[in-house]
Design a protein that fits this description.
Helices cover 45% and strands 10% of the residues.
């Protein structure tokens, strides 16, 4: 039985929701996310899955790729900007299976991945998410 009969949000709507999640973060976090690129892809690539030890492309909803800011140096050059990628199909599947508000789901995954940019632990990321205005 499907919980949602509405069509799933398009990639552009997911990107808008992710950017809104970043904009709702406290200033000191948001300012440090200025160079992070936000993307939406249908599924993770095999390389992305392998990088985090996940076998199925249905099991990865978001990924941070880049060097956390605590590992960056002013002397770094030639690096690509850090990227937060949301994976649309796994997020839509989770939305349909759980009935969680889609915006809240995107918000949660975006904040979690942004936490990796800061080198935060899972516990730290939960505290950050709790401090963000929905």
């Amino acid at each position: 039985m499907r919980r949602h009969l509405l069509p799933p949000p398009e990639a552009s709507e997911m990107e808008r929701l992710a950017r809104a999640a970043i904009e709702s973060m406290p200033d000191h976090f948001r300012d440090l996310l200025g160079d992070v690129v936000v993307r939406v892809e249908e599924f993770a690539t095999r390389e992305q899955l392998d990088s985090v030890g996940i076998a199925s492309h249905w099991d990865l909803t978001g990924l941070y790729e880049g060097r956390p800011i605590d590992m960056q140096s002013q002397w770094d050059s030639g690096d690509l900007p850090p990227v937060i990628t949301l994976f649309r199909q796994p997020l839509v599947r989770e939305w349909r299976e759980t009935g969680v508000d889609f915006g809240a789901l995107v918000h949660h995954v975006t904040v979690h991945e942004a936490g990796h940019h800061f080198g935060l632990s899972d516990e730290d990321m939960h505290a950050l998410e709790d401090s963000v205005d929905d």
